[in-house]
Design a protein that fits this description.
Layout (H helix, E strand, L loop, with lengths): L1 H50 L6 H29 L5 H8 L5 H24 L1 H8 L2 H12 L6 H18 L9 H8 L1 H19 L2 H28 L3 H10 L3 H28 L1 H8 L2 H14 L9 H18 L2 H4 L6
Helix pairs in contact: 1-2, 1-4, 1-12, 1-13, 1-14, 2-4, 2-10, 2-12, 4-5, 4-8, 4-9, 4-10, 5-14, 5-15, 6-9, 7-15, 10-12, 12-13, 13-15, 14-15
Keywords: Membrane, Transmembrane, Transmembrane helix
Main location: membrane
InterPro entries: AA-Vitamin_Transporters (IPR050638), EamA_dom (IPR000620), EmrE-like (IPR037185)
């Protein structure tokens, strides 16, 4: 009887610990969602200030986005390595992670996550606005579910199809009419459409590596520093192909000549670092399904964040009633696609 009581007590302690970790994971995922929107807004504002000194062409906008993203990810990766060193992780641990072959898939996945997904999302949002760009990015779980069904032979029930229909309907509702003062609205939506595809494929490729390695080591090593080098290489290739190799040095010259741009980029680095590492840890604590449900609720959070940052004079922000309605419909659709409500909030099933 005593043994049975001790086993029951140990089981309860174990389950309570899982619940605490799951709740922490959900909290980190929510912080990651907020950080993603704030990072996007600071990044777009910095890009707009830099681009005033350059030709207004789509190729330059893409190169500028790659260079800024590379700069932010590299600095953020260094910050995380310093943070890890302070918490007692030796530099030799990064060499050990490098030797784990499966962990390198994150580096390959960062090609889609950086030059394709994140860069296109930033370019697109600069054209169509934060809420509308995040509505398109919110399609990521839907595309992940579709790809999982096709390539991973995952079972997809009626619930998932209902969620997909709702999410797509939300995008259509939000995209019916552009808000005031937004130029190239539909071009921005089209460019942003590359983001959920890139994010979905990145998630499928890199999930295993996150499971077998410390996310706070894998993320700064591969997703941030490794990804930043890939983005800079892509920028060099585009510049060389178009005959504008001097763009990159000129961009850095403008960055370091204006303190306000450095301030905006510093804020971008901070929130990007929180978002990247926060969601990696969240996935390991509460699971990818629950973490994704919270992370891709950004269409909702982009509205109050946009209003606040607009009041502060950091960005210009406007959203239509249809945009707000579409954002809510998208988030509901995402929740239905990713999990049954009973599964999503049953924290003991982690």
């Amino acid at each position: 009887m005593d043994t049975f009581s001790e086993n029951a007590k140990a089981k309860k302690i174990y389950e309570d610990r899982k619940v605490r970790l799951a709740m922490l994971g959900l909290g980190l995922a929510w912080i990651s969602a907020l950080s993603l929107v704030i990072f996007q807004n600071f990044n777009v504002t910095a890009s707009e200030r830099i681009s005033q000194s350059f030709p207004n062409v789509i190729v330059f906008t893409y190169v500028l986005t790659l260079v800024i993203l590379s700069f932010c990810e590299f600095c953020g990766g260094i910050l995380m390595i310093i943070f890890n060193t302070i918490r007692g992780i030796p530099l030799a641990e990064y060499l050990r992670i490098w030797r784990v072959k499966s962990s390198r898939t994150v580096l390959g996945a960062s090609i889609l996550g950086g030059p394709v997904a994140t860069a296109c999302s930033i370019v697109g949002i600069s054209f169509c606005g934060s809420t509308y760009g995040n509505c398109i990015i919110g399609l990521t779980p839907v595309i992940t579910a579709i790809l999982g069904t096709i390539f991973l032979k995952e079972k997809t029930g009626i619930r998932v199809f209902v969620g997909i229909i709702l999410t797509v309907a939300g995008v259509v509702i939000a995209s019916i009419a552009p808000p005031e003062g937004v130029s190239h609205f539909y071009l921005g939506l089209i460019i942003t459409a590359a983001a959920p595809i890139g994010y979905a494929i990145e998630a499928i490729i890199s999930t295993h590596a996150i499971d077998v390695s410390d996310p706070l080591i894998v993320c700064p090593l591969y997703r941030m520093i490794g990804g930043s080098l890939i983005e800079l290489l892509c920028a060099l290739i585009v510049c060389a192909a178009t005959g504008h190799v001097n763009w990159i040095t000129q961009i850095f010259a403008v960055i370091f000549s204006e303190p306000i741009i450095l301030l905006f980029l510093f804020m971008s680095i901070i929130f990007l670092t929180i978002q990247y590492n926060g969601i990696y840890v969240a996935y390991s604590y509460c699971g990818a399904t629950r973490g994704s449900a919270i992370l891709f609720s950004t269409p909702i959070w982009s509205i109050p964040i946009g209003i606040v940052m607009s009041k502060m004079g950091i960005i210009s922000f406007s959203v239509t009633t249809l945009g707000i309605l579409g954002a809510f419909v998208i988030v509901v659709g995402i929740l239905i696609v990713l999990a049954k409500p009973s599964e999503l909030f049953n924290l003991r099933d982690v």
